[in-house]
From TrEMBL:
Biological source species: Brachybacterium nesterenkovii
Cofactor names: Zn(2+)
Pfam family, one: ADH_N
UniProt-listed SUPFAM superfamilies: GroES-like (SSF50129), NAD(P)-binding Rossmann-fold domains (SSF51735)
Limits of the Alcohol dehydrogenase-like C-terminal domain: 191-324
Domain Alcohol dehydrogenase-like N-terminal: start-end pairs: 28-149
Keywords: Metal-binding, Oxidoreductase, Zinc
Gene Ontology MF terms: mycothiol-dependent formaldehyde dehydrogenase activity; zinc ion binding
High-level lineage: Bacteria, Bacillati, Actinomycetota, Actinomycetes, Micrococcales
Stated name of the protein: Formaldehyde dehydrogenase MscR, NAD/mycothiol-dependent / S-nitrosomycothiol reductase MscR
Enzyme nomenclature, EC number: 1.1.1.306
Domain of life: Bacteria
Similarity-based family: Belongs to the zinc-containing alcohol dehydrogenase family.
Length: 365
């Protein structure tokens, strides 16, 4: 029978998110109902609420989540009832041209649930990133569920579902940071701080965190940054000079831009060493444009990369990173700077503007 639960929705552009009843249909053959235990409050959810993604309202918000499988469709083989899982929005199809070429991190046909959840009046909901996890339970495709160790706390494990994975993957996967390399990270919010942690995990010996916030610079140091730079009063050239001073006069091997505005990207471009790598992991607004001298693009060599979801493969990366956390080698708990319940999600979304938290997590007790 269909199931009625509480969920947080956005009815219209820039209107407050609200907690209301939603209906979850019986799962299709490859669908799974997951009881949500924790879901991180991410900037992407704010973008959905404010119309910055698309206009397919109403949205069921939330996507950075962990929970337990409660019900499965009759053809599900990937998970079983009772499994503890982290939800993901890259459930690779295995058949598209990207998967066929052996680069499934660029899958063009990722799986989602076969049918929508609805409001009480039958209005179909669009789940954020195909998940919709600011709810007591949600409906997803079985491949959107990745089993991880039962020992992990839900509010910590769920962070791998988006922001923390994006930052870790920007360093580990996209930037391919090597032992002994130097890394600079511009912007030390959740994603940028995770990039610092990823650079440390990869064996970088010089890790430079850049931000305008003293709180975020401190967070970067706690996660392993060997140096920090307060950029609030510095020009681009001054920032580049400081990065070069900390890297033998050359610039960093990898510069990760977690802010994604033209000014920070230009800084990243010039703050890297010759033949260094620039990784864009922040998400720019649609109206932004970038101008660089083409001769500089040619003459500096190296690689300019974009990192989408940290180029992760959930089935490979989530269990691995969860195990590192449980071994004390990856301080994921440092990213949880507060918790709330579903009724507090709207306030938590608004607090993102203040920039004082890495992650507030909505927890279902």
């Amino acid at each position: 029978m269909p199931r009625t639960v509480q969920g947080v929705i956005a009815r219209a552009e820039k209107q407050p998110a609200e907690l209301t009843e939603i209906t979850i249909p019986d799962p299709g053959p490859h669908d799974v109902i997951v009881d949500i235990e924790a879901c991180g409050v991410c900037h992407t959810d704010m973008a959905y609420r404010d119309g910055g993604i698309n206009d397919e309202f109403p949205f069921l918000l939330g996507h950075e989540a962990a929970g337990r499988v409660a019900e499965i469709g009759d053809a599900v083989t990937h998970v079983a009832v009772g499994d503890f899982v982290v939800l993901n929005w890259r459930a690779v199809c295995g058949e598209c041209r990207a998967c066929a070429k052996g680069v499934p991190q660029y899958c063009f046909a990722t799986h989602n649930a076969s049918q929508p959840m609805t409001l009480a009046d039958g209005t179909a909901l669009t789940p954020a990133l195909g998940i919709g996890a600011f709810a007591e339970a949600t409906l997803v495709h079985e491949k959107q569920c990745t089993r991880v160790s039962e020992e992990a706390k839900p509010e910590v494990a769920g962070l791998l579902g988006c922001g923390v994975m994006a930052g870790l993957g920007a360093a580990l996967n996209t930037g391919a940071v090597q032992r002994g390399e130097s890394v600079a990270v511009i912007g030390l919010g959740c994603v940028g701080s995770a990039a610092v942690a990823g650079a440390v995990l990869a064996g970088a010996t010089t890790v430079i965190g850049l931000d305008i916030s003293a709180e975020k610079l401190e967070a970067g140091r706690e996660l392993g940054a060997t140096h920090t730079i307060d950029t609030s009063e510095l020009s681009r050239d001054e920032i580049v000079e400081k990065v070069q001073e900390l890297t033998g006069g050359f610039g960093a091997d990898v510069v990760i831009d977690a802010v994604a505005i033209p000014q920070t990207y230009e800084t990243a471009f010039y703050a890297r060493d010759l033949a260094g790598r620039v990784v864009l992991v922040g998400v720019p607004r649609p109206d932004m444009e970038l101008t660089l001298p083409l001769l500089d693009v040619f003459g500096r060599g190296g690689a300019l990369k974009s990192s989408w979801y940290g180029d992760c493969l959930p089935e490979r990366d989530f269990p691995y990173l969860t195990d590192l956390y449980l071994q004390g080698r990856l301080p994921l708990e440092r990213f949880v700077t507060g918790t709330t319940d579903l009724a507090g999600v709207e306030d938590a979304l608004n607090s993102l503007h203040e920039g004082h938290v890495l992650r507030t997590v909505a927890v279902n007790r």
